[in-house]
Design goal:
A hairpin with a 2-residue loop joins strand 2 and strand 3. The chain is mainly beta. The radius of gyration is 18 Å and the shape is globular. It has one domain: Distorted Sandwich (Beta-galactosidase, Chain A, domain 5). Bound molecules: 6-O-phosphono-beta-D-tagatofuranose. The site of 6-O-phosphono-beta-D-tagatofuranose has 11 residues, from strand 18 and strand 19. It catalyses: alpha-D-glucose 6-phosphate = beta-D-glucose 6-phosphate. Keywords: Isomerase. It comes from Actinidia chinensis var. chinensis (Chinese soft-hair kiwi). Pfam families: Aldose_epim (PF01263).
């Protein structure tokens, strides 16, 4: 584990374990790289990403807290991804201690400014772990530390950008037949069809009550990403496609072809914490070789 300077001189932590690596910026508590033992980058970060506050880094795994998207009065996706986190040198013990030594604990607490826009005290502890098999685990622990007795509610997402060879040859398995809210149709509720999801145009859907495990199959690379999640019942699937990609200054014109967001999230039902209560949300990312051929 090493602390060094990343893009724009921002501090970042590098985790290494048996050839795999991961990088987390203190800015945003933002994972921007996850490489397998062959040095292949598994996350997408736009070549036009702006590593400069207050803009969030375009790609990697933005942390959406205390609000997902525009589901509330705050700026889209809340403010955690736009703040400087600190290294948490003395975190309370994690019951499920991973055997890996390659992990970092970060902590975010609200500033005076933050309390003006969201008047709640909290401690948000994030542990990023690079597992022995090269899997990447993010565990969030959010505690209500209000001293005024107030509860607070929030929505949350790990806004993960996966790197894919060609979006038109990607399938997502695990979300078939589920209900979803379509952000492109006024968040109206629909039911997904019965087979794996493929991509031919812009998609922005919040799948509800999704399974613990979701698979993203990359045909060309013969590789499947597996998301295992806990405490995060929903999953957001987003690809901006060409028009929206061109409209974003920090997104390359054709980069939508090489990324897909599948985001472990808690959106439909916001989370309520009483003072002293703690919520946990975990996602574990891994890859397995896949012999997926279309139609299988
Ligand atoms: O997660 C999907 C989404 O909510 C889309 O609606 C789109 O806005 C995307 O997030 C990116 O949001 P950002 O604020 O990072 O540009």
């Amino acid at each position: 584990v090493e602390l060094c300077k990343g893009a724009s001189g921002l501090d970042k932590v590098v985790l290494r374990d048996r050839g795999s690596s991961a990088e987390v910026y203190l800015y945003g508590g933002h994972v921007t790289s996850w490489k397998n033992e062959h040095g292949e980058e598994l996350l997408f970060v736009s070549s036009k990403a702006i590593f400069k506050p207050p803009k969030a880094i375009r790609g990697g795994i933005p942390i959406c807290f205390p609000q997902f998207s525009n589901h509330g009065p705050l700026e889209p996706h809340g403010f955690a991804r736009n703040r400087f986190w600190s290294i948490d040198i003395d975190p309370p013990p994690f019951p499920t201690q991973s055997s890996s030594k390659a992990f970092i604990d970060l902590i975010l607490k609200p500033s005076e400014e933050d309390l003006k826009i969201w008047p709640h005290s909290f401690e948000f502890r994030l542990r990023v772990t690079l597992g022995p098999g090269g899997d990447l685990m993010l565990t969030s622990r959010i505690r209500n530390t209000n001293t005024d007795g107030k509860v607070f509610t929030f929505t949350f997402a790990y806004h993960t950008y996966f790197s894919v060879s060609d979006i038109s040859e990607v399938r997502v398995e695990g979300l078939e037949t589920l209900d979803y809210l379509d952000n492109l149709q006024n968040k109206e509720r629909f039911t997904e069809q019965g087979d794996a999801i493929t991509f031919e145009s812009e998609v922005d859907k919040i799948y509800l009550r999704t399974p613990t495990k979701i698979a993203i199959l990359d045909h060309e690379k013969k590789r499947t990403f597996v998301i295992r999640k806990d405490g995060l019942p929903d999953a957001v699937v987003w690809n901006p496609w060409d028009k929206k990609a061109k409209a974003m200054a920090d997104f390359g014109d054709d980069e939508h072809k090489h990324m897909l967001c599948v985001e472990a999230a808690a959106v439909e039902k916001s989370i309520t914490l009483k003072p002293g209560e703690e919520w946990r949300g975990r996602q574990e990312l891994s890859t397995v070789p896949s012999s997926y051929c279309s139609g299988q």
